[in-house]
Design goal:
This protein has about 190 residues and is mainly alpha-helical. The chain is about 75% helix and about 0% strand.
Length: about 190
């Protein structure tokens, strides 16, 4: 008997191993046709985060952006794939998917199959976004309300990346995350 490992468990994701859109011809076009969406979200969401930071947290994130922006370009370029891949694997592929799967198992008895999938995915997105935010508290621990700030600002990014993950696959969330890092730590320091 052959055991086949599926993550995310069916019917939660794109029904490909590791939620990779490129893994199957049926979802490959979904990813390839979404380049504009990945670019739009990768640029727009960091701008929204900076606006929210300015309005509610006195622009505290600019301190971190300037700090990272003063690092050599090679260091900042290394942060792009490192953060994009590592954080998406941890927070979307494993945490969001695990929470969504457990949520799906609990919810499906009470609601229709399609609604259970959507509710479970959003549960996974929100829980992963919360922990994604908590993981970034250490970036600026000495500002006012560091936990609320990190969870709010990084949570916005986490929600956007989680939605991209469930709709377009792991590769899409990684690419979107990398575009966001480029915007924040390479482009913004050029104008600040």
């Amino acid at each position: 008997m052959k055991i086949q490992f599926r993550w995310p468990p069916s019917p939660l994701g794109l029904v490909n191993p590791f939620n990779l859109a490129l893994a199957a011809p049926t979802t490959r076009s979904l990813l390839l046709g979404s380049w504009w969406l990945l670019l739009l979200v990768g640029v727009a969401v960091p701008m929204v985060v900076l606006l929210v930071d300015h309005l509610f947290f006195a622009g505290a994130s600019l301190e971190r952006i300037r700090e990272v922006g003063s690092a050599p370009l090679t260091t900042r370029l290394l942060i792009v794939p490192y953060s994009g891949v590592l954080e998406e694997v941890i927070y979307r592929l494993f945490l969001a998917t695990l929470v969504a799967w457990m949520g799906y198992l609990a919810i499906r008895a009470f609601v229709f199959e399609a609604k259970a999938k959507q509710l479970a995915q959003w549960l996974g997105i929100l829980v992963a976004a919360f922990f994604f935010g908590l993981a970034h508290v250490g970036n600026l621990p000495n500002v006012a309300h560091p936990i609320v700030r990190a969870v709010t600002l990084n949570g916005i990014l986490g929600i956007a990346l989680g939605w991209i993950y469930w709709q377009r696959g792991l590769e899409a969330s990684i690419l979107t995350h990398m575009v966001g890092i480029i915007v924040l730590y390479i482009c913004v320091p050029l104008v600040m």
